[in-house]
Amino acid sequence: MKKFLLASLPLIAMSSIVIAAPRFDTEAPIAYMTDLSSGAVLYQKNADKQIPPASMAKMMTVYVAFDLIEKGKLKLDDKFRVNEGTWKKWNNQGSTMFLGVGDEVSVSDLLHGIVTLSGNDACVVLAEGIAGTEEAFVGLMNKRAKELGMSKSRFGNSNGWPDEGRTMVTAKDLAALGAATVNNFPKLYDDFYGQDEFAWNGIKQTNRNPLIGKVAGSDGLKTGHTDEAGYGFTGSAEQKGRRLVSVLAGLDSYGSRVEESVKFMNWGFNAWEPRKLFDKGTKVQNAEVQLGDSSTVSLVAAKDLFATLPKASDGKISMKVTYDGPIKAPIVKGQPIATLIVTSEDVDQQRIPLVAGEDVGEAGFFNRAWAGLKSLLGLA
Fold this sequence. Notes:
18 strands; 2 domains; Beta-lactamase; alpha+beta; Peptidoglycan synthesis regulatory factor (PBP3), Domain 2; five-stranded antiparallel beta sheet
């Protein structure tokens, strides 16, 4: 059963003043921005429309590889050989890492070739090396997409090359993928994203990320361009502990992608600000526990929790805690078990995870028997 609890507001001033969300205009037909520090959606324009991602699809190829590395099923120094068929198909086909026939290339170099150089050839060599065939690897991509809740996206190849509509995504799903990459693999993200350049076979190429050198704290994620998709970019930057992820798609030129991407990210940082709700470790509420050695468990902030509001806003906010309960024991300290929902007149709902503040073991035999009897008698 879904439980709702009102949370106290010790740090939030209440006011009758209502300040509208900051205005932003973009020529991009598709746009989306979220603040990972709070979960707030700052902007959305046709964010659920299915679109071809072009090279932004490579984010999922990298995500699959990161996931396998994290699980110990793939090593950065593993090497894959470039076969002649793959080379013939992808040599100089769009963006390339300039791999050669017979090259033995490490996973680390292939990932740099994908993230920094956008190499179509690097994607296919990595995919074939991991799964045997690109088709089998695409199965892993779609499996991960489903796990991440990318319900309106599907992948037909490893590099986003036009494939008669088999590969389609949404801006919202691309942002979710970017957020998952940052949050789930922080060390790998730092190691591979945000590099200025990379060289292979004596050929040095620079990163096409339009934010690098123009927006402080920028380090990701991926550009994309085909005639079908237009110019797109999924970007990420962090300033003063706030990390934003943005998506723009369908722009008509390289220059407009640069201009709009920089303008969009600067707006996200300059027009909005964080408001602290709770310090890390603060107890927010209690939740009911079923068949545990305690009848309740504390719900605490796993990190400093913030809401994102327009700068200078004194608008009202309210908070409530929701969870599926009572929560069945055992419960492990730090386990995500509830959600803090922050509502404001200035921005859409912000949903922030809360975790268990302590371990709760299973109840002993007699307590479980007594609980069962009370339930049977309608006393629970």
